[in-house]
């Protein structure tokens, strides 16, 4: 087993499997964030966001999620370094024949850095005040965090709003390659499904990214 995870195939499998896990997280995360658009002063979003702070989520699922990010980032760094060393500028050569994602395929390292920077800012803006320092505002008369106000205050800062949009666009480009590549890596692909996964992945990537962008713009203009 140790030999498998240390092999090139094993590393790619871990990269793909962790990527699929994070794709599921993105769907859940966007679903919750869309509650920000409900015109009720943030009540629905606060309920959904505070549900994620329950002990089962906080001490059960959050560590698993963090592990998923760590695994994905570590194996991405290892594979990128290997590709750079072995192929020079011909990184992710498996994506070079896919015109729709050619640029993203060749620049996954750069896009990964953009997404990692975006994730770091996101953790600092929300996870730290909500889960670590406890400095996030609370809903009046309850012990519930007023996550809506925290998000609104952050995204009404034009600089932060622009940075978040850039991060979302970087995520979209990252996913246009990562989506179909993850399915291929874990063996859920063939000659017929390769093009289908590419199309589905492109639609998914931009739908998720633009969904987050719409939320950012709505908060900025609110």
Notes on the structure:
The chain is mostly helical and 222 residues long. The chain has one domain (2-221): Up-down Bundle (3 helical TM bundles of succinate and fumarate reductases). It is built from nine helices and no strands. Helix 2 (8-33) packs parallel to helix 9 (191-221) and helix 8 runs antiparallel to helix 9 (191-221). It is globular. 25% of the residues are buried. The model is unreliable at 89-101 (pLDDT under 50).
Strand content: under 5%
* Structural class computed from helices and strand pairing: mainly alpha
Helix-strand topology string: HHHHHHHHH
Task: Indicate the mean pLDDT.
Answer: 83
Radius of gyration: 19 Å
In summary, what is this structure?
The protein is mostly helical and 222 residues long. 77% of the residues lie in helices and 0% in strands. It has helices spanning 2-6, 8-33, 43-51, 55-87, 102-106, 108-132, 147-155, 158-185, 191-221.
Task: Give a topology summary.
Elements: H1 2-6, H2 8-33, H3 43-51, H4 55-87, H5 102-106, H6 108-132, H7 147-155, H8 158-185, H9 191-221
What attributes characterize this protein structure?
9 helices; 3 helical TM bundles of succinate and fumarate reductases; 222 residues; 0% strand; mainly alpha; single chain
């Amino acid at each position: 087993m140790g030999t498998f995870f240390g092999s090139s195939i094993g590393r790619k499998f871990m990269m793909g499997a962790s990527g699929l896990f994070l794709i599921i997280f993105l769907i859940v995360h966007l679903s919750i964030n869309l509650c920000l658009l409900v015109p009720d002063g943030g009540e629905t979003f606060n309920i959904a966001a505070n549900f994620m702070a329950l002990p089962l989520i906080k001490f059960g699922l959050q560590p698993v999620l963090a592990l998923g990010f760590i695994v994905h980032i570590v194996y991405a760094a290892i594979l990128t370094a290997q590709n750079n060393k072995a192929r020079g500028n011909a990184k992710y050569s498996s994506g070079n024949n896919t015109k729709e994602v050619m640029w993203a395929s060749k620049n996954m390292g750069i896009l990964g850095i953009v997404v990692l920077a975006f994730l770091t800012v996101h953790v600092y803006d929300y996870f730290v005040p909500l889960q670590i320092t406890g400095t996030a505002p609370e809903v009046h008369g309850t012990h519930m965090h007023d996550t809506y106000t925290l998000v609104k205050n952050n995204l009404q800062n034009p600089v932060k709003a622009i940075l978040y949009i850039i991060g979302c666009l970087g995520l979209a480009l990252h996913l246009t390659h990562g989506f179909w590549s993850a399915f291929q890596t874990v063996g859920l692909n063939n000659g017929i499904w390769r093009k289908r996964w590419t199309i589905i992945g492109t639609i998914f990537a931009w739908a998720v990214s633009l969904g987050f962008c719409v939320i950012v713009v709505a908060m900025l203009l609110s």
